């Protein structure tokens, strides 16, 4: 059974940075396209970024230039480097495969104070 474990969230001031990690177990990670998503209070979960098995990256316009997705197949982990954080980035952040490979994990809370 595939499991996802997100970490790295926290409380940060506007303009600050965080690096999120997502460890994937129970799958052939290196062959899977992966994505990051977020869900703000009272809103639906939304797509942020994806990275293909070969390393091609795509970022949503809302985070382009500030966030960077990456992966390390040696440790079955996908990362999200978040710079210049804004209050509107406050949300719970999740990872999953594209297409979805597992039930959604607990996510990691990111809170940006203005």
Please give a structural write-up.
- The structure is a single chain.
- The protein has 114 residues and is mainly beta.
- It is built from no helices and ten strands.
Strand order of the largest sheet: 2-10-9-4-5-6
- Count of discrete alpha- or pi-helical segments spanning 4 or more residues: 0
How are helices and strands ordered from N to C? EEEEEEEEEE
- Bin the strand percentage: over 45%
In helices, the fraction of residues equals under 10%
Task: State the distance separating the first and last CA atoms.
Answer: 40 Å
Mean pLDDT, all residues: 96
Number of strands: 10
Q: Report the major sheet.
A: 6 strands, mixed
- Characterize the overall form: globular
Low-confidence stretches: none
Keywords for this structure?
single chain, 114 residues, mainly beta, 6-stranded mixed β-sheet, 4-stranded antiparallel β-sheet, 10 strands, 0% helix
């Amino acid at each position: 059974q595939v499991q996802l474990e997100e970490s790295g969230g926290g409380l940060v001031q506007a303009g600050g940075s965080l690096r999120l990690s997502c460890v994937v177990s129970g799958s052939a990670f290196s062959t899977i396209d992966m994505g990051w998503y977020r869900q703000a209070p009272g809103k639906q979960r939304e797509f942020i970024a994806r990275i293909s098995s070969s390393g091609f990256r795509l970022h949503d316009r809302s985070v382009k230039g500030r966030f960077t997705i990456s992966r390390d197949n040696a440790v079955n982990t996908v990362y999200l480097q978040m710079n210049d954080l804004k209050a509107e980035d406050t949300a719970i952040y999740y990872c999953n495969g594209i297409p979805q490979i597992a039930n959604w994990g607990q996510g990691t809370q990111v809170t940006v104070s203005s």
